[in-house]
């Protein structure tokens, strides 16, 4: 992006910020003194906008700024550990629907990516898109053998637009990282990095195709979930061809009832599919809102879901997967002490947090729900309140866990819409118990051992020597301890910066004193020269003193 384009884009962003008076979002950030200086020069918001809450104004502003900022808001809406509840709720309403680009342009993109004329690739290709979003749009087509497919095509020049907008977002995040009082907890640069990784995955349609292929293999011949087939011969980083499927959106209750679908059975299957993806396969659909989850209309008594859009998938490290499963089991058993212990053992909270305080806070959130009938418990509401409590105890989560939380809320929302009396805990508890019993069974452990046996055998010959070397170091006192600490590195950096500032402060003060002497004492040279020298020395001295006093991030 050229400098001129960057300036124009930044100017447009500033206009939108002013129009929707987003300065309200900076309250409590330490920027109040600057806001008081600027606000007299900022025009008042128009009546309809001024009447809106701050979350609604932010949502409308992101929609005004374009599709990439809509995607940014969608990802940010999952960070309920960072955002106030009102803002997170509004951002969750963002819809990724934008005007389609020209169908002829889509045809040319397909031909350029696959290297063949569209008539050779497909028997039919409909230039009118079926759906359009910020990253890509989808066209119906028919293969030469008659099979119906859909072709997903990236928007032209979308990579350049995303790179430019991300650069601006990183610049804003860097400012927040330096000056926001809660930057260490919010970690704005990490949030932008998470969004960048998510968008990077969506820009590579071969990665999405691989995701679909793995998910299809995990659920092949399943009565619970169907995943369309990938046509690799007609796919590329910018084009993805999938089997065309037809279904009813999972939130279209009227159509499901007209089709005679057993919604109670379907809702229970949704819960089982979620826990199976997370804890059996460790590969879960992380964008499972109703638009991406359809229902097969041909199966009434034994319904199944159809998965779409595989750009965002989630996986958990084995350690997080274990702690998460244990947390769910502890929640099902109302063991609040265990929940508190697990959060600290997992490293999600600092070891300085008192377990009894965390246990009491968790009990205060959960117990009012568990004293009611389970069918009246909204798991999403419980999770949201737990996040608010956890923020007070310096909660730190990995992006994969944030994706999981987002997926859990989506699944619960779909499940409760399908069956408002769904007893989500009663359905989930036996499923999770069975999966964990199988996962940690002696047979599974033996299978994992056999898998790692070649690696163990490869390193076995080195073990006697390594043990001997270690024992020798212990007995001779030759063992050396090597430590690396980010905190120590930060202290060293602060120390060096302090020394450098001290030098600049002394030098700057000395030059200012010298300038004062030159102004007050004529050393025999021309008076004009003394004044010029004094001004020059004063300027250099002031710069040195200013550098020494300037707060570093």
Topology at a glance:
Layout: H1 3-19, H2 32-38, H3 47-50, H4 54-65, H5 67-77, H6 85-91, H7 103-114, H8 118-121, E1 124-125, E2 131-132, E3 136-142, E4 148-154, H9 158-179, H10 183-186, H11 188-203, H12 205-218, E5 225-226, E6 239-243, E7 248-249, H13 253-258, H14 263-281, E8 284-285, E9 293-295, E10 305-307, E11 313-314, H15 318-332, H16 336-345, H17 355-370, H18 379-392, H19 399-418, H20 424-439, H21 442-459, H22 463-476, H23 486-520, H24 527-549
Parallel strand pairs: 5-10
Antiparallel strand pairs: 1-3, 2-3, 3-4, 4-6, 7-9, 8-11, 9-10
Helix pairs in contact: 4-5, 4-6, 5-6, 5-11, 9-11, 14-19, 14-20, 15-16, 15-20, 16-17, 17-18, 23-24
Could you explain how this protein is built, in words?
With 553 residues, this protein is of the alpha+beta class. Among the domains are: 1-96, no CATH class; 97-221 and 230-245, no CATH class; 497-549. The chain is 61% helix and 7% strand. It has 24 helices and eleven strands. It has helices at 3-19, 32-38, 47-50, 54-65, 67-77, 85-91, 103-114, 118-121, 158-179, 183-186, 188-203, 205-218, 253-258, 263-281, 318-332, 336-345, 355-370, 379-392, 399-418, 424-439, 442-459, 463-476, 486-520, 527-549; strands at 124-125, 131-132, 136-142, 148-154, 225-226, 239-243, 248-249, 284-285, 293-295, 305-307, 313-314. The strands form three sheets. Strands 1, 2, 3, 4 and 6 form a five-stranded antiparallel β-sheet that branches. Helix 4 packs antiparallel against helix 5, helix 9 runs antiparallel to helix 11 (188-203) and helix 17 runs antiparallel to helix 18 (379-392). The radius of gyration is 30 Å and the shape is globular. The two termini are 28 Å apart.
